[in-house]
């Protein structure tokens, strides 16, 4: 009888220890914070974007950064954050220094593809315009449906555009326009405006592709030519504003002129020191933003 009780007690203790071990293993360790990307504002550790898609998304962020200081956006895609995505996103945003130093204008968009979780981490300064409710709506209306359909590029592109719109005190156009039901003329007007906006967006993306192709072609022709992130952003801004016959279309020719006179050959019309990078020593990440799943 005593032996049976001893064996039963031993089996019970063993089962309890096994359960504790399995539970601890299930919780896992938080994933290590990766280094920020050496070039660009997008890090795809989950390998869901093509190289071209990653470059286009990073170029879009560069263009926004060159035109406004209202926000600085970075994107991180991981296979497994290894813990609560809120804690992980806040730690990464702080470690990377997303945003401008002293401005607290950083925004980090994170996707955990293993757990199918999403997070928009916002610094305190940018929350004055881009509120937590706005971040939640963006996740619900844009990121969740596109990620569920594996349309990662479409979702991230629209999300980046909307973050900068909100940060500048504007809001994205809501569709459909349910309130336009009674006026046939107003409906035609909406179609015309929509067509114009589509045309502008299409032209903008086409020009960005053309400019990036000019950079790639110049670097292939001259292996020693390597533009920095800031120089790439400045060249894109220059080419956006200079489309005539007198425009310089070769980055190898443009670069020494830009180095000699950045204000003249950036074409930004604003602060000539504006950088395309979103990592400028920013901080102020105290838990703002929103999370979701898909």
Automatic annotation (TrEMBL):
Query: By its UniProt entry, which Pfam families does this protein fall under?
Result: TPM_phosphatase
Q: Where are the transmembrane segments?
A: 179-201
Please list the residue ranges annotated as the TPM domain: 42-163
Sorted UniProt keywords: Membrane, Signal, Transmembrane, Transmembrane helix
Q: Does the keyword Amino-acid biosynthesis apply?
A: no
Q: Which InterPro entries match?
A: TPM_dom
Q: Signal sequence: where?
A: 1-26
Full protein name: TPM domain-containing protein
Origin species: Arthrobacter echini
Lineage, highest ranks first: Bacteria, Bacillati, Actinomycetota, Actinomycetes, Micrococcales
